[in-house]
């Protein structure tokens, strides 16, 4: 009885310890990457709409607040990268939105 019980426990542990397939790992990473980009774009949009300079994102108090209270808030880059990488995207999106509203 003890042998069969321990054998069942051993097999159950081996089932739980199997490695995830590569596709599942890549899918998990791509989901996290998508969420990260979404948080950064929303942050830039919020700063632009509230007329907050992007340099304020570099302040230590803002950094501490974002990483403590915002999911993926620690992944928001410094202001120069926000300006170079994400501000042009926000500008293009807003420009397209304004053009579509004019029609």
TrEMBL record:
Domain of life where this protein originates: Eukaryota
Alphabetized InterPro entries for the sequence: Cggbp1 (IPR033375)
A GO term from the CC aspect: nucleus
A single BP term in Gene Ontology: regulation of transcription by RNA polymerase II
Annotated region (Disordered), positions in chain: 1-24
GO molecular function, one term: double-stranded DNA binding
Record's protein name: CGG triplet repeat-binding protein 1
Source species of the chain: Leptonychotes weddellii (Weddell seal)
Taxonomic classification: Eukaryota, Metazoa, Chordata, Craniata, Vertebrata
């Amino acid at each position: 009885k003890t042998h069969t019980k321990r054998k069942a426990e051993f097999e159950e542990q081996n089932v739980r310890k199997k490695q995830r397939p590569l596709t599942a790992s890549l899918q998990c990473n791509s989901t996290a990457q998508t969420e990260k980009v979404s948080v950064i774009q929303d942050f830039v949009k919020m700063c632009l709409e509230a007329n907050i300079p992007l340099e304020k994102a570099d302040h230590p108090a803002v950094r501490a607040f974002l990483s403590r209270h915002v999911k993926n808030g620690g992944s928001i880059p410094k202001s120069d990268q926000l300006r170079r990488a994400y501000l042009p995207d926000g500008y293009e999106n807003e420009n397209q939105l304004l053009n579509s509203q004019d029609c």
